[in-house]
Design goal:
108 residues, mainly alpha, Four Helix Bundle (Hemerythrin (Met), subunit A), 64% helix
Length: 108
């Protein structure tokens, strides 16, 4: 009996549009919850930290919206710099990322 694990062990190279939209919706909902929590908590002494957190969450929400646009135009999952597919594992962690790891590293 032969076990061909190469075929079953490999993951899809790209997320389906439905999977991508589900992940992005979850990311958006999580960030909106974070934004509400930041707005409801804090004191004046924490104002600067809270402001920075709010700015970060808003930036990520913009990135999520841009990712929704990439799903619609068919470019989701492709690196904006090198045009190679972004690994599924990376998209599972950061569904809104427009870059593969090497290009992200080079842009910093």
């Amino acid at each position: 009996m032969s076990l061909d694990t190469s075929r079953t062990a490999t993951r899809h190279e790209r997320l389906t549009a439905h999977e991508a939209l589900q992940r992005l919706e979850h990311e958006k909902a999580s960030r909106l919850t974070q934004l509400r929590a930041i707005g409801e908590s804090g004191t004046e002494s924490e104002d600067q930290v809270m402001s920075a957190q709010r700015d970060t969450v808003r930036r990520v929400l913009k990135e999520v919206e841009a990712a929704f646009a990439r799903v619609r135009d068919g470019s989701y999952g492709l690196c904006r710099t090198c045009a190679k597919p972004i690994p599924v594992e990376r998209l599972e962690i950061l569904p809104h990322t427009p870059f593969c790891v090497p290009c992200q590293r080079d842009s910093v």
